[in-house]
Write a structure and sequence with these properties.
With about 350 residues, the protein is an alpha/beta fold. The chain contains ten helices and 17 strands. It has two domains: about 170 residues, Medium-chain alcohol dehydrogenases, catalytic domain (Quinone Oxidoreductase, Chain A, domain 1), CATH 3.90.180.10; about 140 residues, Alpha-Beta Complex (Quinone Oxidoreductase, Chain A, domain 1). About 25% of the residues lie in helices and about 25% in strands. The protein binds zinc ion (2 copies).
Length: about 350
């Protein structure tokens, strides 16, 4: 058991004073949480700022006044509960955390579908206090050790920023020979999804609204980058790259904006994976198109611990290089949100307590 006496009784957090603009994010003091017997106490070293956080702050999601948001967490295990098996494996370890702590015992968990578990401590920032804080509780069920040469800021984005794309590509069975269209490819999720799809052997057509993203996306392995294209242009490029009848897989990362174009680019039997939801809105799904082409539509949630473990291995082996992060001190969370909202951050914004 590490020196629990070095853990203070109170900690600095940034909480929501209400919902709305970035200025509702205010510094506050809270008691340090007590991990249960089967839990870990993690000293937060970095917490990523996700698009999800912006929605939560605006009041679109479950967070309310008083919530401490933040689910992209890396840190150091500073206390291990008495019921944790093999405490030596965790004590003092640097870890990245999956956004949800599952219960580990319900039918979903025992079937391996921990993202569906609703009986555990739950999702950081919604069901339990999140990572805009100096400490969070965690569990061997949602923590994965990270190598020494992966810095804290990088560690914080491995689950949500990278693992989400890996899970989505796997949901669609993406593999060698597939032509994959990625919408919102220039965003935090998108750049990693492009690199991961390439790593899985697919040919990638990246869609983005930003001409500045073309060069980086080509470097990540996209075979083509199309700037705000119409459906005909996407289909043409997909055909030139081997998808004569259309794309095998579309990874839809934007929500509404690129949906219609993405849908029309699919081949018969194509697989559409809905992942991103940056502008929550209903989508124009043409049933005729889905029926005639016998399309498969998947939803894909966050990474689970197994996905995160695979991401750590991919990073360790050099197969995937996570994008650089720009850091802000925790108490400047409002400034970080403001910069992200103004699209002033190339790479990921990360808060450091
Ligand atoms: Zn996230
Ligand atoms: Zn469960």
């Amino acid at each position: 058991m590490p020196s629990a006496d070095t853990v203070p009784t109170t900690m600095r957090v940034v909480e929501l004073a209400g919902t709305g603009g970035p200025d509702v994010l205010v510094p506050a003091t809270r008691p340090v949480p007590h991990p249960a017997a089967d839990q870990l106490l993690v000293r937060v070293r970095a917490c990523g700022v996700c698009g999800h956080d912006l929605l939560a702050r605006r009041g679109v999601l479950a967070a309310t006044a008083g919530s401490v948001i933040g689910h992209e967490i890396a840190g150091e295990v500073v206390a291990v509960g008495s019921g944790v098996r093999d405490p030596g494996a965790w004590s003092g370890r640097r870890v990245a955390l999956v956004q949800r702590i599952p219960c580990g015992a319900c039918p979903d968990c025992t079937a391996g579908s921990t993202t569906h578990c609703r009986l555990g401590p739950g999702f950081y920032g919604e069901d339990l206090p999140g990572g805009y804080a100096e400490y969070v509780v965690a569990s061997p069920l949602n923590a994965v050790p990270i190598p020494d040469d992966v810095d804290d800021a990088t560690g914080s984005i491995l689950s949500c920023g990278v693992g989400t794309g890996l899970r989505a590509l796997r949901r669609a069975g993406t593999g060698p020979g597939d032509v994959v269209v990625v919408t919102g490819a220039g965003g935090g999720l998108g750049v990693h999804a492009v690199a991961l799809a390439r790593h899985l052997g697919a040919t990638v057509v990246a869609l983005t609204g930003s001409p500045a993203k073309e060069e980086p996306l080509l470097r990540l392995g996209a075979a083509a980058v199309l700037i705000a294209p119409d459906a005909a242009r996407v289909r043409r490029r997909v055909a030139e790259l081997g998808g004569r009848r259309g794309a095998d897989v579309v990874l839809e990362l934007t929500g509404a904006p690129a949906f219609a174009v993405a849908l029309r680019s699919l081949a018969p039997g194509g697989r559409l994976v809905l992942v991103g939801n940056t502008e929550p809105a209903l989508l124009p799904l043409d049933p005729g198109l889905a029926i005639v082409k016998e399309l498969c539509v998947y939803g894909s949630a966050h990474a689970d611990r197994s996905d995160l473990g695979d991401v750590v291995d991919l990073v360790r082996s050099g197969a995937i290089t996570p994008m650089a992060a720009r850091t802000w001190p925790l108490h400047e969370a409002a400034l970080a949100h403001d910069a992200v909202e103004r699209r002033q951050v190339a790479g990921r914004a990360v808060l450091v307590p």
